[in-house]
Amino acid sequence: SLGRPTSSMKPSVFVTRPDVPDVGINLLKERCDVELWTKNIAPPRSELLKGVTGKSALFCNIADKIDKEVFDAAGPNLKVIATMSVGYEHIDLEEAKKRDIKVGYTPDVLTYAVAELTVAILLATSRRLFEAHREIFNGGWTSWSPSWMCGPSIKGKTVGIVGFGRIGQETARLLKGFGVRQFLYSGRKDHPEASDIGAFRLPIEELLPQCDFVICTLAMSPETKHYFNEKLFNLMKPSAIFVNTSRGGVVDQDALIKALETGQIRAAGLDVMTPEPIPPDHRLLSLPNCVVIPHIGSAGIESRNDMAEVTARNILTALENKPMPAELKL
Ligand code: DGY
């Protein structure tokens, strides 16, 4: 081993899933010792703690809770945590900052995929695709019927976007093609991009009563927890359709269930909920006017490849003390 670099001289990375797209893993393998968790589920706590021990970098995702215990288990070698997600509320940023550990995430590369899925679930909800599909199997499809399985079209309607960041804006751009009459958005500040899209900002209390579709793309934070509460659902039209593709935690789910059960709103389409995964016997899943899908917003093939690549590059650049493609300011 005279002067020859051995594998033990390479930085080491723990990757919390074996099915991370190859593009990311191959990049890491060029310069690091890579250890992959072996199962296609989130590693149990003990395995996460074991896996991260002594590593220089952690490649994780939103299902891995990265808190003080994980930082402690990793020890002083840990230089960077890179999450294959745009959301980062699963990482204790204070703790990372205290220890001078860099944190990377994957904004931008999933914006289109999540916006596309938002349009898909909006249509699946408004045109009742899953409900109609079930009718084929449960005997409900007896013949063509004039009023059967009808739902509102998007054309000519008012769409409100709550959380007008990258994903909210992209969703509006995609929906433009459907002939929306008016886009409204709410949020703390004016967005210059809104004028190209033709969107107006209104306080939430004025926006909700006007909207036929309410789309939530709010980032999760202590301030947005249970943002959509009973009071806000009560401001919506009885014909309103509510769509959430951001985080389940921004909705008071009991208030949503009540609004769906009482007809306070027409329907909801959710890619995110509480908890995830949702138990199959959960009340939310028994509501015919609620479409639920399992947090697949960013699951475009292209976006997942890009997310894996950005996450790997975040790790490699951080390990070399170079600017990361997407570093969170701590
Ligand atoms: C994210 O990136 O935060 C999504 O929720 C998962 O891709």
UniProtKB/TrEMBL annotation:
Keywords: Oxidoreductase. GO terms for cellular component: cytosol. GO terms for molecular function: glyoxylate reductase (NADPH) activity; hydroxypyruvate reductase (NADH) activity; NAD binding. Residues 120-297 form the D-isomer specific 2-hydroxyacid dehydrogenase NAD-binding domain. Residues 16-327 form the D-isomer specific 2-hydroxyacid dehydrogenase catalytic domain. Belongs to the D-isomer specific 2-hydroxyacid dehydrogenase family. This is Glyoxylate reductase/hydroxypyruvate reductase. It comes from Frankliniella fusca. The lineage of its organism: Eukaryota, Metazoa, Ecdysozoa, Arthropoda, Hexapoda.
